[in-house]
Hints:
alpha/beta, Rossmann fold, 14 helices, 11 strands, ChlI/MoxR_AAA_lid, P-loop_NTPase
Amino acid sequence: MSDHASQDARAAAEVAEVDAIAARLARARxxxxxxxxxxxDVIEQTFITxxxxxxxxxxxxxxxxxxxxxTTLGTVLGLDAGRIQFTPDLMPADIxxxxxxxxxxxxxxxxxxxxxxxFCQLLMADEINRASPRTQSALLQAMQEAHVTVAGQRYDxxxxxxxxxxxxxxxxxxxxxLPEAQLDRFLLQIDVTYPSLAAERAMLLQTTGDHEPxxxxxxxxxxxxxxxxxxxxxxxxESVVDAIVxxxxxxxxxxxxxxxxxxAHLAWGPGPxxxxxxxxxxxxxxxxxxxxxxxxxxxxxxxxxxxxxxMALNYAARAEGETLDALIGRLLAPLR
Length: 336
């Protein structure tokens, strides 16, 4: 077989793989849509997070189906799902697990490690900002390194491993704001807003009747990990890479390319991890749509959830009523 024919065969195989996985992802997304009404953008961004191999921070008031979304995703994707309710008295061992002293049948005393709830494939960290910084940091290593260390011993977490954390944006009394280092570990910050009028009406009818839709398995962990590997192999054009680099750098107030509104309104901007997140997320969005490569439109769509938790307004900007989403919108204007 000639080199040209061999390249054509590889290209055809890659197209077929993208089509096959995109079709399975579409069925999985439809399965979630049947249970979670009125949150299609949230569902899409959550799927993008999982396909990119990352973690997401869901920010929204209570009652917007954040917990139900996680349990539904666990069923639909075939993942072992767990949940931790974060409270001020939660200890690191309540997350990672702890060693207990046991006596064997021969009378020997030995330590045995009892795994904590973090040992699952899809973890919901509910109201993560209610736990102390010490407890929050226990989740930091797990999110970044996919293992925990207890008494000097390393314990690997199941694969895949994803954290979907929730946060209430209104009630801040008795909370511990997440430090920038931990916020940066979240691939996306997904703002969960109120549903539209039609969606809320449909939700009321669906959830108060005698028959409520039940989530059904549509995917398995092996297929999800295959999709994650495929995301990293998708080609990305030079124009998209240039758009990502210029966007991230233009959001840093100390950068020479930053515009005056950025210098005047931002205390700090996104680091290189924001560019890495965008590179993965735009590929994941393309795969979710069944496309072979991402476009500038993907960068525009995903810039707000990727940048908003990696930037901070200064005091003057907050006093003037400036918002991060409005500032990001202005940064995206040259790409539109």
